[in-house]
Amino acid sequence: MPHSKPFELGWEEWLALPDLGLPAIKAKVDTGARTSALHASVIEPFGPADAPQVRFLIQPDPNNPALEVTCSAPVVDRRDVTSSNGETELRYVIQTDVEMGGRRWPIQLTLTNRESMSYRMLFGRGAIQPDMIVDANASFRQPKLDFAAYAGLPKKRPVKRPLRIALLTREPKNYSSQRLIEAAQARGHVIEAIDTARCYMQIGTTHPQVHYDGKALPRYDAVIPRIGAGITDYGLAVLRQFTNTGAFCLNSASSIGHSRDKLMAHQLLARAKIDMPVTAFAHSPKDTKDLISLAGGAPVVVKLLSSTQGKGVVLAETRKAAESLTDAFRGLDANFLVQEFVEEAAGTDVRAFVIGNKVVGAMKRQAQKGEFRSNLHRGGTASTIKLTRQERDTAREAAKVLGLRVAGVDLLQTEKGPKVLEVNSSPGLEGIESATSKDIAGLIIEHLESQVRPLARVREPASRKRR
Asked: Which positions in this protein are listed as binding Mg(2+) 2 (predicted)?
């Protein structure tokens, strides 16, 4: 008997997800990925704990962000998925039917933000049936579809609702917290300041919650983390728990952790070929002299890995002073690094404020006389400055490498171009707003709205209407 013709797939294919109301979507076929993934820019869980569902927004055409479709589906699982760049993300998993080349079958999909990807869907090997063959050198072995299929869909009016926002901070009365509260309330949102240290959690349940003052907190649409350096580890655990509840976190726990660990931050920035002052690190006291030489020799800056606001940052002007400092820090069992001192910066640096991969403001900070640290908390002064294109690109790329949606990127201006000094995941607002006269807090809330948008009304599947 002659063999039936195999069902061939190329490395990219058009398909439909009819139960989700998606008549056409272009997918990348990736046999290296076990589970398929679908773009979801706004994810909102709902329904009872024993029968959870998820509602999400998708823009199926990467070149037409105005085309938006709201989908909903039952949740079959929540699963840790590690992407090709090594980042692990807890994702919702749904099951739905796929249609391709006249065939229809059920597949599982994880939901994740693929906004920066060329394909809104990844078609993994778990969705490939036994009689299918993938030709990695061919495209579109099955019939092509077109985004014109969405032209006949009815327009949906958005459902407007205020966001419920948690401001995670131990200092609700400081300038930054107050400005964020004012900006959120001015735009009609409900915002609550929550003391990070007073949060507690029950780990291991299928219904994640954060408890506070004897009761479970409600579900928040978004969380703005302002986690102090002294409570970083516990604060990140609390933030991860908020993420598990389905809240959108302005900066993720992993991105904050990367930025707070100065050694890791420098390694990630260096891997991305972002220019920085030469930095050296060693654990053994036998390497002190070589460590200073690796940083370019005296003068050098000796910096605690957990330093903030200029605290734990010391300038050693001579080799002897540098050796004494490193020995003293080691004697305290402190983690530190040794960094090149960029003398031409002359006690000045630039703070570029990044929101959503865009530099929204910048200020030049000048250290007070006799001081090399330009931090405003150390008596420095600030003035507005217009950045060069190279400086803006460097700031944006540094925030992106660390995964920060909101960041204060400190740059040194040198003849060879900008050098990244540090990336702050909880930048203060007082200095930048005073120097630039811009409503930075309002821009942060506006960005939050763009990530947690009010959803369109959910269109019922045709099969449900017929019932």
From this structure: 422, 424
